[in-house]
């Protein structure tokens, strides 16, 4: 009987090796979506170990460890959802690449949280509930734990469906739901809740109106001028100075709580001074940059690129300084209650809690952030550097106006409202120009309904999804928190 030849043996071996390589390729392809959740889980475990080591051997050590794990989970979800509002417009306008935006946001968010983050936070989320209505520390601890878990779950769900929601409102809803379950409806400060509900409407509308107003100014004074470059040399330094002054006031008001307490009037004076200095500094720079540019809109976009990147970085720093403390507030409350055996309206945030928040945001941004960044930056409406600049500027101005009016607002609602404002203004402006052109040419002024639908510049499906998510954020987080509190209170006595 003839033995198999060497060539047949090699062919068989090649086939077997090819099958093995195909299996390895399929395994790596299937495992790829699990890399992000795996890293996130590892970070949560590390946060738990860090809490076990740093908190010490207090009687309720395991409760703090569990809270640290859920606090890390919350921080990951903030990075995946909330940071997109700051970086999305810059990415959508092609002023930043996705990787560049993620790196800048991670650095600025972490720096804002660790360098300028508030060292004191209201554990009951700006007076939403009265902790004195809770009879004992155990009840208060489970209420804060339920608020933390429900807020994290809701933000995670919103990220899955592609809806940027307010982290602060999620925490507020969680605290309210747990407070009602623990001490009844009388524990809730309903006037404060009414002000928060009003901000759902006021902040995005105000952000949209301001963004649309600046876009109208840019179109009127620069884009539609015969000599666009000359107009840009006059107006761009003014716009950059407004941006610098606004962000200086914004950071002084919101981002420097740990260093010094600044009132609104002082913050506005600081902003005015910075704005004047910026104007005289950028005027010659813009003149040099615009030399040799062609008289077209594409040239104008280059002049707004760097200011847009700087505004996105400053927004991320201010967000890290202001919102991270709110997100880890329930965790700080649990740590304080179990360390001192008492709860308080305001407590100091331990540095290790802020580190969990800062690093969690960075990890969440790297692992899961691109989805929402693309949504805010390009899928709602088309942005260029000038439109994105208007969105970033409106966010800072709206926060200052809201602080002056004493309204609790969400940076998420403001930024996304600015994107919607820019998009709807473009729709209105385009329809108006078409009507004027038709009138000048002797054609009917009315535009057919199908043509009007075809020219929509804001995707209505995203608009409805986001608005619906905003409306149900507080009640959904509250309902989940109440259920989680009742389960914790029933299972662990």
Describe the fold and architecture.
The chain has one domain (37-491). 78% of the residues lie in helices and 1% in strands. It has helices at residues 6-31, 35-55, 61-81, 84-92, 98-116, 137-161, 167-183, 190-223, 228-255, 264-290, 297-327, 329-340, 351-368, 370-379, 385-405, 411-440, 449-454, 460-491; strands spanning 120-122, 346-348. The protein has a two-stranded antiparallel ribbon with strand order 1-2. Helix 4 packs antiparallel against helix 5 and helix 8 (190-223) packs across helix 16. The longest helix has 34 residues, at 190-223. It is globular, with a radius of gyration of 26 Å. The relative contact order is 0.18. The mean pLDDT is 81.
What Rg do the Cα atoms give?
Answer: 26 Å
Which stretches are low in confidence, meaning pLDDT under 50 for 5 or more residues running? none
- Total discrete domains: 1
Instruction: State the helical fraction.
Output: over 70%
Largest sheet data: 2 strands, antiparallel
Query: Which class do the helix and strand fractions yield?
Result: mainly alpha
Order of helices and strands: HHHHHEHHHHHHHEHHHHHH
Overall geometry: globular
Subcellular location: Membrane
Main location: membrane
Keywords: Membrane, Phosphate transport, Transmembrane, Transmembrane helix, Transport
GO molecular function, one term: phosphate transmembrane transporter activity
